[in-house]
Specification:
The protein is mainly α and about 375 residues long. Helix content is about 70%, strand content about 0%. A two-stranded antiparallel ribbon has the order 1-2. Helix 2 runs antiparallel to helix 3. The radius of gyration is 22 Å and the shape is globular. The termini are far apart.
Length: about 375
Amino acid sequence: MSFSRSDRSLLARWWFTVDQSLLTSALFLFAIGLVVSLAASPAVADAKGLRPFQFVERHLLHALVGVVVMLAISLMEPRAIRRLALGVLLCAVTAMVVALIAGPELNGARRWISFGGMTLQPSEFAKPAFVVLAAWALSEHQQRPDMPGLHIAVGLAVIVVGALLLQPDIGQAVLITAALGALLVLAGLPLVWPFGAAVAGVALVSVAYLLIDYVQNRVNAFLSGEFVTGAQTERALRAFLEGGFWGRGPGAGTIKTDLADAHTDFIFAVIAEEYGIGACLGLVAIYAIIVTRLVIGGIAQADPAIRSALIGLAVIVGLQASVHMAVNVGLLPATGMTLPLISAGGSSMLAISATLGMGLALSRRRPQASRLKRTAFATKAAIQD
């Protein structure tokens, strides 16, 4: 893509102000996801009695739509992003309630809604929308103490986390709580508030352990060490051992035929076996670049709402990727969390695309308010002289 600096079109202005390192890293992940899907998905499709490339075709479609979504959102201004987040959060929470009432039950959870032959997980879209709105509310509280921004942010978190607990989806609930804690720290509130968020996160896990059977079983197996010899985790660990540093080669892996969730929850293990630990480290580096660019983009912003939103989005993306990888190497019990832009799944793909689109939009370089004021002052002084 080539533009002249004198070109004042929307695309030209976007190209010269967007974080191109962040954009390139995101596009790399889309491409890597397609390559990995070709390796992991056919075996899963065959085991389910489907056409060999059915999941690959879906992944390609989701990736193409995801790229369009990301680029379209990246063209927006901060105010439009905030409005988009409000609309997305309202729709997501409403859909989560519908899922609880009329959604299909899978593995003891009601997290999805079905329409037109498609299945959607609304909670995936609630995460970035919550971060943007909570960041705005807390920044308003900083600037105008009379504005109940803190109560709005905490109230939104309670609504979203409450709906997640009813599904139940403990992993996503903890992710939202962690994002809230980070936003509270960035807002400069007394430490009692982020400490309270941390306590709430621990309480969520504790209550889930006591009341939800599958959570208790997974945690007990993890703490006792039984997960090493059980089901998918043991096979995932074996994939890292058999892949070594360079991997067995594209398509040469066998572990994917034994993993029911090879294309989703354990895609990192498939990468390890076929492409090696070196490829896994490269993937970690790409996620690190994305998180770092979001944080740097946030630090560079004068607007506290944009700054907090960008760092909050970095927490969402980085923590989700880290949890997925940790599960695959046996450092955490299974959570069902996908690897951003790599794992199969339309909801996750589109939600992460929207997240990165918001990050690209909010991190675009814009004239600082102070610089504009200085320019106006200098112009006025020159006229007077």
